[in-house]
Every structure is written in structure tokens, then in C-alpha cells.
């Protein structure tokens, strides 16, 4: 029996695509528009302004350089989740934190620019599910090959 592109060992992960779509609450997302990095990507500042609906000055004062990429500390976003006047934006900022801290961690305690790009594209009808599933599969496969380890995603 041959392996399809969505198997892990002998486990078929095709249903997992549907489960991820349900868990991430993006069933209205166009399934034919899978996430891929755009040729022209807005700056981190612009993406965060779009996601949070906060002003340029507030965001600019929180952007930091970590290694080779720009990011924003989770603490700043956490504080925003607690006080943002728009409930939907609270949820969006919290979800961005989950993406950055759990699914695609790069800089400890920070949300990386690549994660904000993926998240920003959600509002444009682009589904991140295949990208997230691919990263889950890639990381689990690396752990299995090594016989140990933990999940590490990469945006």
C-alpha cells in the first residue's frame, strides 16, 4: 500500500484537515486558497494594525528585533486581550497568541512576523489549515525519526 501525502505512519490524516478547519472555526474559508507566502507582504506594523485595530504608535513601540526577524512580545498582546474594547478583536489577538506561542513558536514569549502574516491572511479568505497540518506532520515525523523530542512548528 502506497503512502498518500496526508499519512503519518499508517494513520490517514485527511479527516484531520476537516477537524482542524472546524477547530480553527474557518469553515467559510475558501478551500482552494491555501496559505502560501505572498510576494508582496505588508510590514509587521501594518499587519498588526489590521489584526488589532490599534494605532501605529502603540504597535511601533512594541515591535522588537529577535534574531533575524521582528516580533511582538506576548505580554503586550495579553494586556491588549484584557482591555480591547472590541470583543472580536480580543478573540483575534488571543488567537494570534495561540498561533505564535503554541503552533509556530520561534522566539520564546514572542509572536513572530511570519505568524502575523499567516494570521493576517485569514481575513482575506485564505485557509491556514494545510500549512498547520503540514507543520504538525513534519514535526511529528522528525520526532519519530529521532525517537524523542517535541512538536516544533515553523511559520
UniProtKB/TrEMBL annotation:
Database matches in InterPro entries: DUF7745
Domain DUF7745: 3-155
Pfam families registered for this protein in UniProt: DUF7745
Record-given protein name: DUF7745 domain-containing protein
Amino acid at each position: 500500500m502506497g503512502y498518500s501525502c496526508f499519512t503519518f505512519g499508517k494513520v490517514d490524516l485527511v479527516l484531520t484537515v476537516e477537524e482542524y478547519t472546524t477547530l480553527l472555526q474557518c469553515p467559510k474559508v475558501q478551500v482552494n486558497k491555501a496559505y502560501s507566502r505572498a510576494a508582496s507582504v505588508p510590514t509587521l506594523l501594518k499587519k498588526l494594525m489590521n489584526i488589532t485595530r490599534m494605532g501605529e504608535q502603540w504597535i511601533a513601540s512594541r515591535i522588537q528585533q529577535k534574531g533575524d526577524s521582528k516580533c511582538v512580545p506576548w505580554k503586550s498582546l495579553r494586556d491588549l486581550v484584557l482591555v480591547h474594547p472590541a470583543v472580536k478583536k480580543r478573540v483575534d489577538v488571543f488567537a494570534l497568541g495561540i498561533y505564535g506561542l503554541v503552533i509556530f513558536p520561534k522566539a520564546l514569549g514572542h509572536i513572530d512576523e511570519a505568524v502575523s502574516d499567516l494570521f493576517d491572511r485569514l481575513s482575506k479568505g485564505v485557509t491556514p489549515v494545510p500549512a498547520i497540518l503540514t507543520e504538525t506532520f513534519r514535526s511529528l515525523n522528525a520526532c519519530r525519526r529521532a525517537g524523542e523530542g517535541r512538536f516544533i512548528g515553523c511559520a
